[in-house]
């Protein structure tokens, strides 16, 4: 496995693969990798000849009061993990390398589907994601790119961006990887205290209960309210609980497939999760 | 020469060239071609193995009161001209093909350098240009793209866009092609009456006079004022007269290379031109 820290170095490493028309798979990450990321890499490994993983904590997707400075940077450990799951090239550029050589004047925004859910509490977040993903796509020029369904809204934004701009890339959404107790894996889980970590799986439990309740015919609004009560009782401060179509349209009845979204704070840590509930008439 | 009207057809036509790593040159146009466009194609022909010219009147770069509906569409004549100068593939998609298959939510804006000059009178214009050029770049995936220096601000915007987003494309600016009397060639010249056509070269004459005046040591502000007087006397309604650095920074003294920009209306027709004046101390 190679590690490249410059765009030029990465191009040099990828040129032979491009020249022989090999399929390039790309997994963009911010590092601090866990099994969720490794499953993205395994999926890429299955479909592609060459697997590139980027590790870049992207400053422009963090708000002024967010955790950019303290976001865990664990390149050495990440590299060991990536080598084990068959990554070919780690691309770990500096902020300077990605943004430093001239003032950036270009912004990309994906409207409507970024205005609520996580977009509401994090203004500019998805613009920052759209810009960095576009840059990385242009640098790596992959055939396939892999994103986790845990960040379901992010996945929807990137699919929309790729479609709107005719990017020649297939975007693959990979199911959420969960701990044995159901907690969706996330880099931010590391911020949880021992007690909070024990409480955190309540999010997934409420989602599974909601799935059962919906299939038993309970009204969607009642089910959402029950989630809110259960989370609040368990000590969460709820940011949002929403029901959407898989393409993020608002829905108010369970008469089609629905994705249930939760964002809630436990202490200082903001956790998100989602569950797609299939409709069968 | 092939003509393709669908993205899929174009990809099929270009795949053999891509597979054999040929250099692809791309000239995006809105059709109604004149010698200025043909010089872009000749330049592409010199540098590249395969030359693609797109003809697409892009609705989203026209304002509500602009000439989208009446913009001349002359595909058959354009095709004859392109075949003569060695174009390999004409890409002439419908609006449906470019924008029709789903609602577009993505916007791209290039800040600062789009807020004045032509951007001031045409809000949203350069966003529309940035989106369509990005889409076309992703569809054609050229190695080189060619743009005329007549639309100097557009060229600067596209260079900035490509740099900011790490697009793997070399953008080449090609000098303005002029009629014998100095008028910069433009599709919009066709809107001029016979009498207006005789007056139109005044724009270039004032630019050349300004160049001489600057080299003779006249103050930049005086030179700009003299252009304004001369154009107004000749019957133009001046939109702007500006002096900028080649990267579009405002300058108020002739102590570096300067680009003089003019936009002015003659009757109902808005004409633009520019001249780069070299500084030598």
Automatic annotation (TrEMBL), chains A, B:
GO CC annotations, alphabetized: cytosol
Residues that bind beta-alanine: 61
InterPro entries: Cyt_trans-like, Pantoate_ligase, Pantoate_ligase_C, Rossmann-like_a/b/a_fold
EC numbers: 6.3.2.1
Domain of life: Bacteria
GO biological process: pantothenate biosynthetic process
Classification via HAMAP family: PanC
Name under which the protein is recorded: Pantothenate synthetase
Organism: Acinetobacter gerneri DSM 14967 = CIP 107464 = MTCC 9824
